[in-house]
Specification:
- The chain is 37% helix and 15% strand.
- The protein has 393 residues and is an alpha/beta fold.
- The protein folds into two domains: 253 residues, Aspartate Aminotransferase, domain 2, CATH 3.40.640; 128 residues, Aspartate Aminotransferase, domain 1.
- The radius of gyration is 22 Å and the shape is globular.
- Bound molecules: pyridoxal-5'-phosphate.
Length: 393
Protein backbone atom coordinates (compact mmCIF):
# COMPACT_ATOMS: atom_id res chain seq x y z
CA UNK A 1 0.00 0.00 0.00
CA UNK A 2 1.44 3.40 -0.92
CA UNK A 3 0.99 5.68 2.02
CA UNK A 4 0.50 9.40 2.08
CA UNK A 5 3.08 11.39 4.00
CA UNK A 6 1.16 11.96 7.25
CA UNK A 7 0.54 8.23 7.51
CA UNK A 8 4.08 7.42 6.47
CA UNK A 9 5.65 9.55 9.21
CA UNK A 10 3.59 7.74 11.84
CA UNK A 11 4.18 4.20 10.61
CA UNK A 12 7.60 4.08 8.96
CA UNK A 13 10.45 2.10 10.57
CA UNK A 14 8.45 0.88 13.56
CA UNK A 15 9.08 -2.55 15.11
CA UNK A 16 6.97 -5.44 13.89
CA UNK A 17 4.04 -5.96 16.28
CA UNK A 18 5.60 -9.08 17.77
CA UNK A 19 9.06 -7.52 18.17
CA UNK A 20 10.71 -5.65 21.00
CA UNK A 21 8.16 -6.66 23.64
CA UNK A 22 5.32 -4.90 21.81
CA UNK A 23 6.66 -1.37 22.27
CA UNK A 24 5.43 1.20 19.74
CA UNK A 25 8.94 2.57 19.18
CA UNK A 26 12.20 0.87 18.23
CA UNK A 27 14.69 0.27 21.04
CA UNK A 28 17.79 2.34 21.52
CA UNK A 29 20.61 -0.13 20.88
CA UNK A 30 23.90 1.21 22.17
CA UNK A 31 26.97 -0.59 20.95
CA UNK A 32 30.56 -0.46 19.98
CA UNK A 33 31.33 -4.18 20.23
CA UNK A 34 28.85 -6.66 18.82
CA UNK A 35 29.55 -10.26 19.83
CA UNK A 36 29.45 -12.98 17.17
CA UNK A 37 28.47 -16.53 18.07
CA UNK A 38 31.33 -17.98 15.98
CA UNK A 39 34.11 -17.09 13.57
CA UNK A 40 31.99 -18.50 10.76
CA UNK A 41 29.25 -16.05 11.69
CA UNK A 42 31.77 -13.22 11.67
CA UNK A 43 33.10 -14.24 8.25
CA UNK A 44 29.56 -14.28 6.94
CA UNK A 45 28.85 -10.80 8.34
CA UNK A 46 32.00 -9.38 6.76
CA UNK A 47 31.23 -11.04 3.43
CA UNK A 48 27.72 -9.63 3.40
CA UNK A 49 28.98 -6.22 4.45
CA UNK A 50 31.57 -6.20 1.66
CA UNK A 51 28.79 -7.06 -0.79
CA UNK A 52 26.96 -3.89 0.23
CA UNK A 53 24.52 -5.46 2.66
CA UNK A 54 23.76 -3.63 5.88
CA UNK A 55 24.52 -5.63 9.01
CA UNK A 56 24.79 -5.00 12.72
CA UNK A 57 28.43 -5.99 13.08
CA UNK A 58 30.12 -3.11 14.92
CA UNK A 59 28.77 0.14 16.42
CA UNK A 60 30.68 2.33 13.97
CA UNK A 61 28.92 0.55 11.08
CA UNK A 62 25.51 1.49 12.49
CA UNK A 63 23.04 0.01 14.97
CA UNK A 64 19.44 -1.18 14.63
CA UNK A 65 18.37 2.26 15.88
CA UNK A 66 20.34 4.17 13.24
CA UNK A 67 19.18 1.66 10.60
CA UNK A 68 15.55 2.42 11.55
CA UNK A 69 16.13 6.13 10.97
CA UNK A 70 17.98 5.46 7.70
CA UNK A 71 15.03 3.39 6.50
CA UNK A 72 12.59 6.11 7.49
CA UNK A 73 14.51 8.81 5.62
CA UNK A 74 14.88 6.56 2.57
CA UNK A 75 11.14 6.06 2.53
CA UNK A 76 10.51 9.80 2.80
CA UNK A 77 13.12 10.89 0.22
CA UNK A 78 12.81 7.91 -2.14
CA UNK A 79 16.00 6.43 -3.56
CA UNK A 80 18.01 3.36 -2.65
CA UNK A 81 19.64 4.03 0.71
CA UNK A 82 20.49 6.69 3.28
CA UNK A 83 23.56 7.44 5.38
CA UNK A 84 23.56 9.49 8.57
CA UNK A 85 26.12 12.06 9.72
CA UNK A 86 26.72 13.98 12.95
CA UNK A 87 25.70 17.30 11.35
CA UNK A 88 23.95 18.49 8.22
CA UNK A 89 27.21 20.04 7.11
CA UNK A 90 29.07 16.73 7.48
CA UNK A 91 26.42 15.19 5.21
CA UNK A 92 27.04 17.91 2.61
CA UNK A 93 30.80 17.36 2.93
CA UNK A 94 30.39 13.62 2.44
CA UNK A 95 28.81 14.14 -0.98
CA UNK A 96 31.84 16.17 -2.08
CA UNK A 97 34.37 13.79 -0.48
CA UNK A 98 32.83 10.70 -1.99
CA UNK A 99 31.99 11.97 -5.47
CA UNK A 100 34.83 14.37 -6.38
CA UNK A 101 38.48 13.83 -7.11
CA UNK A 102 41.27 16.23 -8.18
CA UNK A 103 40.74 17.48 -11.74
CA UNK A 104 36.96 17.22 -11.51
CA UNK A 105 34.78 20.24 -12.18
CA UNK A 106 31.81 21.01 -9.93
CA UNK A 107 28.99 23.48 -10.62
CA UNK A 108 27.56 25.06 -7.48
CA UNK A 109 24.56 27.39 -7.30
CA UNK A 110 25.38 30.88 -6.02
CA UNK A 111 22.66 30.51 -3.39
CA UNK A 112 23.90 27.38 -1.62
CA UNK A 113 24.17 27.27 2.17
CA UNK A 114 27.12 29.47 3.19
CA UNK A 115 29.17 26.80 5.00
CA UNK A 116 28.80 24.49 1.95
CA UNK A 117 30.33 27.27 -0.08
CA UNK A 118 33.19 27.35 2.40
CA UNK A 119 33.83 23.63 1.82
CA UNK A 120 34.14 24.38 -1.90
CA UNK A 121 36.32 27.48 -1.54
CA UNK A 122 38.57 26.50 1.37
CA UNK A 123 38.74 22.71 1.09
CA UNK A 124 37.98 21.53 -2.46
CA UNK A 125 39.72 24.29 -4.44
CA UNK A 126 43.10 23.88 -2.67
CA UNK A 127 42.88 20.15 -3.48
CA UNK A 128 42.62 20.65 -7.21
CA UNK A 129 38.86 20.41 -7.67
CA UNK A 130 37.59 23.14 -10.00
CA UNK A 131 34.61 24.88 -8.37
CA UNK A 132 32.43 27.15 -10.50
CA UNK A 133 29.33 29.04 -9.35
CA UNK A 134 26.22 29.61 -11.44
CA UNK A 135 23.30 31.98 -10.75
CA UNK A 136 20.22 30.42 -9.17
CA UNK A 137 16.62 31.35 -9.97
CA UNK A 138 14.52 30.60 -13.02
CA UNK A 139 17.41 30.67 -15.53
CA UNK A 140 19.51 28.15 -13.56
CA UNK A 141 19.07 25.25 -16.00
CA UNK A 142 20.35 27.32 -18.94
CA UNK A 143 23.25 28.55 -16.78
CA UNK A 144 24.16 24.96 -15.90
CA UNK A 145 23.89 23.78 -19.53
CA UNK A 146 26.20 26.59 -20.65
CA UNK A 147 28.87 25.72 -18.08
CA UNK A 148 28.85 21.95 -18.38
CA UNK A 149 32.27 20.45 -19.29
CA UNK A 150 33.36 16.88 -20.04
CA UNK A 151 35.01 16.81 -16.59
CA UNK A 152 31.94 18.15 -14.74
CA UNK A 153 31.22 15.52 -12.10
CA UNK A 154 28.67 17.26 -9.90
CA UNK A 155 25.96 19.93 -10.00
CA UNK A 156 25.10 21.03 -6.47
CA UNK A 157 22.24 23.32 -5.36
CA UNK A 158 19.90 24.21 -2.54
CA UNK A 159 16.28 24.45 -3.67
CA UNK A 160 14.97 26.91 -2.71
CA UNK A 161 18.28 28.76 -2.31
CA UNK A 162 19.63 29.71 1.07
CA UNK A 163 18.47 33.08 2.53
CA UNK A 164 17.02 34.43 -0.76
CA UNK A 165 14.82 31.37 -1.46
CA UNK A 166 15.16 31.46 -5.25
CA UNK A 167 13.58 28.40 -6.90
CA UNK A 168 15.42 26.46 -9.63
CA UNK A 169 13.88 24.22 -12.27
CA UNK A 170 15.37 20.94 -11.10
CA UNK A 171 13.83 18.70 -13.81
CA UNK A 172 15.28 21.07 -16.45
CA UNK A 173 18.70 20.97 -14.75
CA UNK A 174 18.58 17.16 -14.72
CA UNK A 175 17.61 17.13 -18.40
CA UNK A 176 20.53 19.46 -19.22
CA UNK A 177 22.94 17.15 -17.38
CA UNK A 178 21.52 13.88 -18.72
CA UNK A 179 23.99 11.80 -20.69
CA UNK A 180 26.98 13.58 -19.12
CA UNK A 181 29.18 12.24 -16.36
CA UNK A 182 27.70 14.69 -13.84
CA UNK A 183 25.55 13.81 -10.86
CA UNK A 184 22.97 16.24 -9.49
CA UNK A 185 22.85 16.74 -5.72
CA UNK A 186 20.30 18.89 -3.89
CA UNK A 187 20.39 20.21 -0.33
CA UNK A 188 16.77 19.45 0.52
CA UNK A 189 16.69 20.80 4.05
CA UNK A 190 13.96 23.37 3.30
CA UNK A 191 11.77 20.76 1.60
CA UNK A 192 12.50 17.77 3.84
CA UNK A 193 9.60 15.77 5.28
CA UNK A 194 8.03 15.23 1.86
CA UNK A 195 7.60 18.87 0.85
CA UNK A 196 10.13 18.42 -1.95
CA UNK A 197 11.44 15.20 -3.47
CA UNK A 198 14.58 15.89 -5.52
CA UNK A 199 15.15 12.22 -6.39
CA UNK A 200 11.69 11.89 -7.92
CA UNK A 201 12.44 14.98 -10.04
CA UNK A 202 15.63 13.48 -11.47
CA UNK A 203 18.38 14.33 -8.95
CA UNK A 204 20.79 11.61 -7.86
CA UNK A 205 21.44 12.73 -4.28
CA UNK A 206 19.33 14.49 -1.64
CA UNK A 207 21.00 15.92 1.46
CA UNK A 208 18.98 16.94 4.51
CA UNK A 209 20.00 18.72 7.72
CA UNK A 210 17.79 16.63 10.02
CA UNK A 211 18.84 19.21 12.65
CA UNK A 212 16.07 21.43 11.32
CA UNK A 213 12.39 20.50 11.17
CA UNK A 214 12.73 16.74 11.45
CA UNK A 215 14.63 16.74 14.75
CA UNK A 216 12.55 19.83 15.43
CA UNK A 217 13.44 20.77 19.00
CA UNK A 218 16.73 22.67 18.74
CA UNK A 219 18.63 20.00 20.65
CA UNK A 220 20.24 17.72 18.06
CA UNK A 221 22.45 18.12 15.00
CA UNK A 222 22.31 15.42 12.32
CA UNK A 223 22.41 15.11 8.55
CA UNK A 224 21.39 12.53 5.97
CA UNK A 225 22.44 11.67 2.43
CA UNK A 226 19.95 9.70 0.34
CA UNK A 227 20.81 8.61 -3.19
CA UNK A 228 19.56 6.63 -6.16
CA UNK A 229 20.97 3.43 -7.72
CA UNK A 230 23.60 5.37 -9.59
CA UNK A 231 25.64 6.43 -6.55
CA UNK A 232 24.02 5.13 -3.33
CA UNK A 233 26.34 2.17 -2.81
CA UNK A 234 29.45 4.29 -3.28
CA UNK A 235 28.18 6.86 -0.77
CA UNK A 236 27.42 4.04 1.66
CA UNK A 237 30.80 2.37 1.25
CA UNK A 238 32.69 5.63 1.60
CA UNK A 239 30.80 6.56 4.76
CA UNK A 240 32.03 3.27 6.27
CA UNK A 241 35.58 3.83 5.04
CA UNK A 242 35.52 7.29 6.62
CA UNK A 243 33.99 6.06 9.89
CA UNK A 244 30.81 8.10 9.74
CA UNK A 245 27.94 7.24 12.05
CA UNK A 246 25.62 8.84 14.63
CA UNK A 247 24.67 8.03 18.20
CA UNK A 248 21.67 5.72 18.60
CA UNK A 249 20.21 8.08 21.21
CA UNK A 250 20.27 10.94 18.71
CA UNK A 251 18.86 8.70 15.97
CA UNK A 252 16.02 7.71 18.29
CA UNK A 253 15.16 11.32 19.01
CA UNK A 254 15.27 12.31 15.33
CA UNK A 255 12.91 9.43 14.57
CA UNK A 256 10.67 10.72 17.36
CA UNK A 257 10.76 14.16 15.70
CA UNK A 258 9.69 12.62 12.39
CA UNK A 259 6.46 11.28 13.98
CA UNK A 260 5.09 14.79 14.56
CA UNK A 261 6.83 16.73 11.80
CA UNK A 262 3.78 17.11 9.55
CA UNK A 263 1.71 18.62 12.38
CA UNK A 264 4.51 20.97 13.43
CA UNK A 265 5.24 22.15 9.90
CA UNK A 266 1.56 22.66 9.07
CA UNK A 267 1.01 24.74 12.21
CA UNK A 268 4.18 26.79 11.80
CA UNK A 269 3.40 27.42 8.12
CA UNK A 270 -0.07 28.71 9.00
CA UNK A 271 1.51 31.03 11.56
CA UNK A 272 4.11 32.16 9.02
CA UNK A 273 1.42 33.08 6.48
CA UNK A 274 -0.35 35.20 9.12
CA UNK A 275 2.89 36.94 10.08
CA UNK A 276 3.78 37.50 6.42
CA UNK A 277 0.37 39.00 5.60
CA UNK A 278 0.99 41.52 8.39
CA UNK A 279 4.60 42.18 7.33
CA UNK A 280 3.52 42.93 3.77
CA UNK A 281 1.32 45.75 5.10
CA UNK A 282 4.20 47.46 6.95
CA UNK A 283 5.56 50.57 5.21
CA UNK A 284 9.18 49.64 6.05
CA UNK A 285 8.97 46.35 4.14
CA UNK A 286 10.04 46.23 0.50
CA UNK A 287 9.34 42.57 -0.13
CA UNK A 288 9.02 39.16 1.51
CA UNK A 289 11.03 36.37 -0.14
CA UNK A 290 8.93 33.22 0.13
CA UNK A 291 7.97 31.01 -2.86
CA UNK A 292 4.38 30.33 -1.66
CA UNK A 293 3.57 34.03 -2.24
CA UNK A 294 1.99 34.62 -5.63
CA UNK A 295 4.19 37.69 -6.10
CA UNK A 296 7.38 35.63 -5.61
CA UNK A 297 9.45 35.00 -8.77
CA UNK A 298 9.76 31.32 -7.80
CA UNK A 299 6.03 30.84 -7.22
CA UNK A 300 5.17 29.01 -10.46
CA UNK A 301 8.00 26.49 -10.10
CA UNK A 302 7.25 26.06 -6.40
CA UNK A 303 3.61 25.32 -7.21
CA UNK A 304 4.63 22.78 -9.85
CA UNK A 305 7.33 20.93 -7.87
CA UNK A 306 6.70 21.35 -4.12
CA UNK A 307 3.99 19.80 -1.94
CA UNK A 308 3.79 22.63 0.55
CA UNK A 309 6.04 24.98 2.48
CA UNK A 310 7.61 25.58 5.86
CA UNK A 311 7.95 28.75 7.94
CA UNK A 312 11.39 30.10 6.96
CA UNK A 313 11.52 33.24 4.82
CA UNK A 314 13.33 36.55 4.44
CA UNK A 315 12.15 40.14 4.63
CA UNK A 316 13.78 42.86 2.52
CA UNK A 317 13.57 46.34 4.02
CA UNK A 318 13.02 49.49 1.94
CA UNK A 319 16.30 50.89 0.54
CA UNK A 320 16.59 53.66 3.13
CA UNK A 321 17.00 51.04 5.85
CA UNK A 322 20.53 49.74 6.33
CA UNK A 323 22.04 46.94 8.32
CA UNK A 324 22.03 49.11 11.51
CA UNK A 325 18.24 49.32 11.21
CA UNK A 326 17.92 45.60 10.72
CA UNK A 327 20.13 44.95 13.75
CA UNK A 328 18.10 47.38 15.88
CA UNK A 329 14.94 45.61 14.71
CA UNK A 330 16.20 42.23 15.84
CA UNK A 331 17.72 43.47 19.10
CA UNK A 332 14.27 44.79 20.11
CA UNK A 333 12.51 41.45 19.67
CA UNK A 334 11.52 39.56 22.83
CA UNK A 335 9.94 36.37 21.48
CA UNK A 336 12.11 35.82 18.40
CA UNK A 337 15.52 34.56 19.49
CA UNK A 338 18.76 35.63 17.81
CA UNK A 339 20.30 32.35 16.78
CA UNK A 340 21.55 30.13 14.01
CA UNK A 341 19.58 27.18 12.66
CA UNK A 342 15.79 26.91 12.39
CA UNK A 343 13.05 24.28 12.34
CA UNK A 344 12.67 24.09 16.11
CA UNK A 345 9.41 24.93 17.87
CA UNK A 346 10.58 28.50 18.61
CA UNK A 347 10.83 31.61 16.45
CA UNK A 348 14.22 32.99 15.38
CA UNK A 349 15.54 36.04 13.57
CA UNK A 350 18.88 36.92 11.94
CA UNK A 351 20.09 39.85 9.86
CA UNK A 352 22.13 39.54 6.70
CA UNK A 353 24.34 42.21 5.17
CA UNK A 354 23.70 43.62 1.74
CA UNK A 355 25.69 41.90 -0.94
CA UNK A 356 24.92 38.33 0.10
CA UNK A 357 25.09 35.84 -2.77
CA UNK A 358 22.15 36.07 -5.12
CA UNK A 359 20.84 39.28 -3.56
CA UNK A 360 21.95 42.84 -4.19
CA UNK A 361 19.02 44.71 -2.66
CA UNK A 362 18.51 46.31 0.75
CA UNK A 363 18.99 44.97 4.29
CA UNK A 364 17.58 41.53 4.77
CA UNK A 365 16.12 39.84 7.84
CA UNK A 366 15.58 36.08 7.88
CA UNK A 367 12.76 34.90 10.09
CA UNK A 368 11.85 31.45 11.28
CA UNK A 369 8.31 31.37 12.63
CA UNK A 370 7.68 28.76 15.30
CA UNK A 371 4.67 27.49 17.22
CA UNK A 372 3.99 30.60 19.34
CA UNK A 373 0.66 32.40 18.81
CA UNK A 374 1.08 34.49 15.66
CA UNK A 375 -0.67 37.47 17.29
CA UNK A 376 2.09 37.55 19.91
CA UNK A 377 4.75 37.24 17.20
CA UNK A 378 3.19 40.17 15.33
CA UNK A 379 3.23 42.27 18.54
CA UNK A 380 6.90 41.35 18.91
CA UNK A 381 7.74 42.38 15.35
CA UNK A 382 5.96 45.67 16.04
CA UNK A 383 8.59 46.33 18.73
CA UNK A 384 11.24 45.70 16.08
CA UNK A 385 9.81 48.28 13.66
CA UNK A 386 9.47 50.82 16.49
CA UNK A 387 13.15 50.32 17.41
CA UNK A 388 14.14 50.65 13.76
CA UNK A 389 12.37 54.01 13.54
CA UNK A 390 14.46 55.30 16.46
CA UNK A 391 17.78 54.59 14.70
CA UNK A 392 19.51 57.75 13.41
CA UNK A 393 21.36 57.51 10.16
C1 LIG B 1 21.43 24.04 8.77
C2 LIG B 1 21.67 23.67 7.38
C3 LIG B 1 22.70 22.79 7.04
C4 LIG B 1 23.69 22.25 8.03
O1 LIG B 1 23.12 21.55 9.10
P1 LIG B 1 23.91 21.49 10.49
O2 LIG B 1 23.31 20.33 11.18
O3 LIG B 1 23.67 22.81 11.17
O4 LIG B 1 25.36 21.27 10.16
C5 LIG B 1 22.85 22.47 5.70
N1 LIG B 1 22.04 22.98 4.76
C6 LIG B 1 21.04 23.82 5.05
C7 LIG B 1 20.17 24.33 3.96
C8 LIG B 1 20.81 24.20 6.36
O5 LIG B 1 19.82 25.04 6.66
Amino acid sequence: MTKRDKTRFVHVARPASNGEAGAVNPSVVRASTVLYPSTAHLRDLVRRRNAGERSFSYGAKGTPTTFALEDAITEVEGGKRTQLFATGLAAVAHVFLSVLKPGDHVLLAETIYGPARQIADDYLKPRGIVCEYYPGGAAAAAEVARRLRPETRLVYLDNPGSIVFDVQDLPAICTAVKGSNALVAVDNTWGAAGIYRPLALGADISVVALTKYIAGHSDITMGSVTANERIADQLWRDSHILGQTVSPDDAYNVLRGLRTVSARIAQAHTHAMEVIAWLQRQPQVERVLFPPLESDPGHTLWKRDFNGAISLFSVILKPQYKIEHANAFIDALRLFGIGASWGGYESLALTYQQGIRGWSGGALIRLHVGLEDPADLIDDLGLGFAAMGAVRG
